[in-house]
Amino acid sequence: MIWYWVIALGLVAASALLHLAGVIRFVPSAHWTVWLVVALVLLNGGWMAFDGGRALLVGDYVTPKSGKLAGTLGPWAKVVSAVGIRPRSTFMKWTFVVYGLSYLALMGALVLGESRAWWGLLVVALLGLWYVPFGFLINVLVIVLASLPVFRASIS
User: Fold this and answer.
1) Bigger pLDDT: 93 vs 20
2) How far is it, in rounded angstroms, from Cα 20 to Cα 82?
3) Of 77, 99, 124, 125, which cross-links 142 as Cys (Cβ 3.0–4.6 Å)?
4) How confident is the model at residue 81, as a pLDDT?
């Protein structure tokens, strides 16, 4: 799991260096709500992309290694099972990867000044409400923050 943090910090550092070099320009006067949404999307989208990618490579998601919950998936597995999708299927693993990367790409576009990415970010946040409990909480926060007038004004 340390690779997740190494990759996340590497992306942040690379973005900062590209910004300092003048290759990319972030939204100049972004309100704090924008940066909070960035952090939440990095956390949720980054984790899902990492966990889905790891599951495709290793064969399973990150699960507890010991204790009563060893080897079990979170409550989200019951949600997707209820609609007929096997949580450990290749389809679901790819869903994690595509969802996570889409979320990160939309957030990146938003930070780089593409205000039309706001709609996509809201749609992806709504589509991620099934990922209970943490994804649900994070996505609700993203929806609420991104819907604030100060957020919209900051990105346009």
Assistant:
1) 93
2) 48
3) 125
4) 96
